[in-house]
Amino acid sequence: MLSIKRIVVGTDMSPLASWAAARAALLAHESGSESVDLIHVIDNLAIETLRHLMKTPLETERRLMELSRKQLTEIERTLSEKYQIPVSATTLNVGRPYTEIVRYAEFLNADLVVLGAHGGGLVRELFVGSTVDRVLRKLARPVLIVKREPQVPYRKVLIPVDFSEFSGQATEFAMNIAPHASITALHAFEVPFKASLESAGVDDDLVQIYESEVQAQKKKEMEQFISELGAPKATLSSIMELGPASAVIRKNLEVLDPDLIVIGKQGQSGQDETLLGGVTRRLIQEASCDILVVPLF
Fold first, then answer.
1. What pTM, to 2 d.p., does this model score?
2. Where's the UspA domain (predicted)?
């Protein structure tokens, strides 16, 4: 089982970013993590703008740094007292947010990086967009994107799977990050060459038999996938559904209303609709629940 010993939280001090810090603390408390580490990055482009706009740029920059340090200290105190977890370090850097977050996570050998869904303050970038997208592309570590204010540990988790090693590891990580949750593995599949067979005039009954065989094979793959995970049946269930991945995932998000969706960083398919291609980008933009992206270790 993959452990979560050290959690890094990127914060821009916005109210939405505070949800990320709270979720990280809640996870640390539940999983017994060794520490939560905070990093706040003052965008160097914002600093340059201040230097050109202000009459006393150095004094303004000094006050900004001092205010940021006080805010970080207050966040550290709140997390420690409310969740009874160790906050090992608070770091204030100047640079590009995604670069500094990636560097800090690698330096600390973080097991999980937690980011808020949106940025704020002096940084106008949306965390969902350039910062989160770049962190996901640059960082080979699990990244949790928080979109909801945390109240309780995760209770309902949805995991789109393609039976690859990536999906297996994502599911294992999900069972660790949400040990008491009800977890659903979702597999969307399509019938190869069905449209071509129908266009060629192949008998409908034969096409239906072929579709049933494909579905039976997918069922076997799902059973093997779950069996190899060794998860209790009470906590891990499965759904298989015919259709494009994006449509199937969107439908089940509405029906199941999970509080977390977990995705492996790469799937088996090389097409544009791979789980960590267009589908994942749309999920990050559209899903209202938290999203955990897990790379292959």
1. 0.85
2. 4-147, 154-295
